[in-house]
Design goal:
By secondary structure, this protein is mostly helical. The protein is built from 3 helices and no strands.
Amino acid sequence: MIEKILIAALIIAIAIAFLCVKVIFRKNGYFASQHIHDSEAMRERGIHCVMDQDREMRTRSKLAVKEKSE
């Protein structure tokens, strides 16, 4: 049982090390943003996050419910 736990911990440690290679070994390394609006490829295709798409549809539609500003 303890052997399986140690093997699992070793696999997790190796995975974390691979994820951190760019951050650790590169000068000014950082994790890239995973948000849709930060991706240039998504912007080129005209894909937005769901919040932006909802806001856009609300402003275009005549039947849409107006947002309440506080």
